[in-house]
Every structure is written in structure tokens, then in C-alpha cells.
Specification:
The protein is of the alpha+beta class. It contains six helices and 24 strands. The longest helix has 11 residues. The radius of gyration is 25 Å and the shape is elongated.
Length: 339
């Protein structure tokens, strides 16, 4: 990793939390021709290293200003001048206020024990994260749940109205809820090695990341996973085009419902805008086990379409309470809205 990549990567974890402005900085330590950069928000911490021949020094620098400075410098040269860090190349020079290195919390110390998991599991996290909550008061919903037991790994995310689940075989047992921002960093940097203990420890060449878990118990999501014995099937392409058309009305409301009714060998999908004046509807051929109807959040359906593939879309329904798409080692379920 070159110096610019190392700085940008470490700085991506720097973020203020509470009354700790030091978390907006990147800690820099140069020793023996190696330079380290560390950023953390106490939930996710990232340390990167690069080869760099310079005098030994250490300090903390505002992450935003540091990234901006190296954005216009290809080969930065660092030096401390009193209480400032000087960054220069040729006639370009930046002088940034430096803070004591020891004020930075650094990367959390990991005890080294835990279960090593395959990096392929990152793909499963990426597939389910769309369903996780956002700023929910129930903290456990703001993360991705990894549960390994009896040789099976379940990777799940839910916001309380929908759930996305993937499964895979695994050795070892653990339970951990990773915050979405931690999952985003793991997906972005795709570590070669991940060890799950009380935290998840990620390693890749000259990159190290420690992600703290959400301290909560995840609910038993298996209670809502009955997909129902009835289903309807439509063309996936036509259904997706219908959702795009209905989404034109969505600018008037953020939680617009799609009312779906299947009978007479057709599926009718319709929506009404928040002004109660705008309306859109489309019909498409459908096959089904029995007639039915349901109301589902539009943007949830749009997200679901990004999770499934194939020419035909088969959705199971359960007494008009939910719809779901089940595939091998995968399931995505959405609870209904009031009709």
C-alpha cells in the first residue's frame, strides 16, 4: 500500500463520537523506515502501514485536512516543525496543526483468540446489509448478525419490517452483531483473514481492522421465516419495470405502499401518491396457487429485486402477512402493510 492509499484508508475510520474530538484525527507514527496511520471511531478502527524513509516522529492530524492535502501531492514528505506537521512536495507545502500522539486511543488490543472465518463470508454480508435498520432505537437492528452453530452459519439483517438471510457451512461457533458501518468497511476492503471473538479482527497485508460488536441480543428471527405454502409467479423483468413506474409517485411520500392483487390470471399492482391525487397501476400475466392480495412497502420491493435474479419471480405469501423469496441458502422476507 502506498502512502496516499494508507492515509485515505485509515482516515475513513476517523469520526467524532461524543466529546472526543481526537477521534477526528489520524494518528501517525514513523519508526525505522515504516510509517503507520491509525483512525478509529471506537466502533471501527483501521491501521495501515507503508514503507517510508523519514526521521522518526509521531503526532495526530485532522483526518479531513490530511486527506485534502495529500490529494494534491503524489509523493508527500513529512516533517515536524514545533507543533505542526509540514507536508510538502516541490513547491507545494501544507502546514497542519499537530496533536500529541498519545492522546489517540489507537487500535483496540485483540487477545488473538477466536474463530477464523472464510473471506467468502464478506459476500454474504454484502447481500443482506440492505435490510439492516438505520438509526433504529433498537441497536441490534442497526447491524448484521452472524450466528454460527452446529456447523451452520446464518448471516442476517433486519429492520423489523423485513429480513434478509443467507446461510453457509462453517466450523466453530460464535454469535456477533456487527454495526453496519463496520460491515461497510469490511466489504470495502475485503480482508484476507477474519477472526471472530469478542470483536472481529481483519487482516490484509499492510492493513489491520478491528470492529467492535453491538452489545445486545439478536431476536429469534426464525419465528417469522415460514414462507407459506402459496405463491404467485410473474416475469421478473415486467415486475421490475412496474416498480420503476410506480416509483415516479414516490417523491410525495417516503413510505409508499404497493397494493398487489392476483386473480383472473393477472397480477395488478397499484400505488397512490401521498397527495392522494396521483395514482399508477399496471397489470401483468401471473400464475398462482390461489387468489390473494397484499400491500407492501414500495422501496422494500425495489430492494428485494436487487437481491434476486432469474427470468421469473416467484414470491410466497403467508395469510396476507408477508411475502418472501426463497432460494438455496437464501431468503428475503417483507412484512405486509395495512390495506
Amino acid at each position: 500500500m502506498n502512502i496516499k492509499e494508507a492515509i485515505i484508508t485509515a482516515a475513513s475510520a476517523a469520526q467524532a463520537r461524543g466529546t472526543m474530538p481526537i477521534l477526528t484525527t489520524v494518528a501517525i507514527k514513523a519508526v525505522g523506515g515504516v510509517i503507520e496511520f491509525t483512525g478509529t471511531d471506537l466502533q471501527v478502527g483501521i491501521k495501515t502501514t507503508a514503507q517510508y524513509g523519514t526521521k522518526d516522529f509521531s503526532c495526530c492530524i485532522d483526518a479531513r485536512k490530511l486527506v485534502a492535502a495529500i490529494g494534491v501531492i503524489d509523493m508527500p514528505q513529512f516533517s515536524l516543525a514545533g507543533n505542526n506537521l509540514v507536508i510538502k512536495q516541490g513547491r507545494t507545502r501544507f502546514t497542519l496543526p499537530a496533536f500529541p500522539f498519545e492522546n489517540h486511543p489507537g487500535l483496540q488490543v485483540v487477545n488473538g483468540t477466536g474463530v477464523e472465518i472464510d473471506s467468502d463470508i464478506v459476500k454474504l454480508m454484502a447481500e443482506v446489509r440492505y435490510a439492516a435498520g438505520k438509526n433504529d432505537a433498537r441497536l441490534f437492528l442497526n447491524g448484521v448478525y452472524l450466528n454460527a452453530e452446529k456447523g451452520k452459519l446464518s448471516v442476517a439483517a433486519s429492520d423489523g419490517h423485513r429480513i434478509s438471510l443467507r446461510t453457509a457451512p462453517i466450523d466453530g461457533e460464535f454469535k456477533i452483531i456487527l454495526p453496519v458501518n463496520a460491515v461497510n468497511q469490511i466489504i470495502k476492503y475485503r480482508p484476507d483473514k477474519m477472526i471472530i471473538g469478542d470483536v472481529i479482527h481483519c487482516l490484509k497485508d499492510d492493513f489491520e481492522m478491528v470492529c467492535n460488536a453491538i452489545d445486545a441480543k439478536y431476536p429469534d428471527f426464525t419465528r417469522v421465516l415460514n414462507s407459506g405454502s402459496d405463491s404467485f409467479t410473474v416475469s421478473r423483468d415486467e415486475f421490475q419495470k412496474t416498480l420503476v413506474a410506480l416509483n415516479v409517485l414516490r417523491d410525495t411520500t417516503s413510505a409508499m405502499a404497493v397494493h398487489m392483487q392476483w386473480r383472473d390470471d393477472m397480477l395488478t399492482a397499484s400505488s397512490m401518491g401521498g397527495d392522494r391525487l396521483s395514482e399508477a397501476e399496471n397489470q401483468m400475466p401471473a400464475t398462482y396457487t390461489k387468489e390473494g392480495e397484499i400491500a407492501i412497502c414500495l422501496h422494500y420491493l425495489i430492494d428485494l429485486m436487487g437481491a434476486v435474479s432469474g427470468d421469473d419471480l416467484e414470491l410466497s405469501f403467508d395469510e396476507q402477512r408477508s411475502i418472501s423469496s426463497s432460494r438455496e441458502n437464501a431468503m428475503d422476507l417483507i412484512m405486509s402493510m395495512k390495506l
